[in-house]
């Protein structure tokens, strides 16, 4: 059914400024894609379309999370007293081992999907665990919810507890099952070698072959922490940088690739990221919590790299991508104090990173330009809007002060998405 939505519309076609339509209209076709956006309904006139009036509310593109670990959801907000490598061994691997039990996985994954929904994230690049059955379950939960996700069964076979180590053959078999599962067009597997230290050369080669054979996207971690980078250099002595270690196995842009962090990316790695059109998932809270550092996002943008935002639960403690915009701006201000050649991020830039730039990894997602999939949020900010704020200041106040209580409608590819159920509610 074709629809025309009326509201105060805000989005970013380009990163330097917002498009603002006071009492504007966005028309959505039966396929869930935007057919027009305009200040007056006459220019969108379509007698078959139902007009839905959201009144004084704000209508913006929905959020995208480019890097999040569903199987670390229980650890959100705890265990922040270590750097990356001991943090993985002490807190993270023991938690992920529990996902061999699909009952446990269902309890946690339902809560995770529900909470992504709460904070208005309609698309996500997700790490599950090595376990095929619970990964399949997570894909099914996204499908049932109607939300978009690229879900990774994690490849690991060294430097981890036995419960998280899988043979190369088992990993390939698991992926081939997931690839052939009937699934919604919004939910697909993504090849997910955890990071170089967790995967033998044979495992990395098999991951690259799977991506090429089934034309699957790839996600992993890159240049997050200095000890990690030194370890990768030891494990892959031939590689010229960390990114090159993935590239040698066909895991760096041969199919669409997103790499989290890039805190310590040097100029050589930057050039390779650019050449391979790899997307950087910036995870500012995680980089603060596990003391990794500050990624040079302004430098990446100046160099024309594609960048998006990730919550990186549970290195990150906050699932809200709105809050991630705030952290990205704040971290860029700290970074600016150290490097005045790189000005800090503006609000429109942070919003663009979370919507149109992140959304590009999922297709035409993250804007209201014609042809874009209608992923959208309706914000009722009446409790935050007490003194004649402009529309842009209303949005800014919501980003800085708001939460799920102000989100009154959520759409993914044109469909309104209702609250997914937790296991306690079934
Ligand atoms: Zn991560």
Task: Describe the structure using short key phrases.
alpha/beta, 4-stranded parallel sheet, 13 helices, single chain, 426 residues, binds zinc ion, 7-stranded mixed sheet
Give a verbal description of the structure.
With 426 residues, the protein is of the alpha/beta class. It is 36% helix and 23% strand. It has 13 helices and 17 strands. The strands form four sheets. It has a seven-stranded mixed sheet. Helix 2 runs parallel beside helix 3, helix 4 packs parallel to helix 5 and helix 11 crosses helix 12. It is globular, with a radius of gyration of 21 Å. The two termini are 30 Å apart. The mean pLDDT is 97. The site of zinc ion has 6 residues, from strand 5. Zinc ion binds next to strand 5.
In a few lines, what is going on in this structure?
36% of the residues lie in helices and 23% in strands.
Number of helical segments with 4 or more residues: 13
Kindly report the average pLDDT value: 97
Q: List low-confidence stretches.
A: none
Radius of gyration: 21 Å
Strand percentage lies at: 15-25%
Q: What hetero molecules are bound to the protein chains? A: zinc ion
Reading the helices and strands in chain order gives: EEEEEHHEHEEHEEHEHHEHEHHEHHEHEE
Q: Would you report the number of β strands? A: 17
Largest sheet: 7 strands, mixed
Please state the oligomeric state of the protein chains shown: single chain
Q: Biggest sheet, strands in spatial order?
A: 3-2-1-4-15-16-17
Name the overall outline: globular
Structural class: alpha/beta
Q: How far do the termini sit from each other?
A: 30 Å
Q: Helical content, roughly?
A: 25-40%
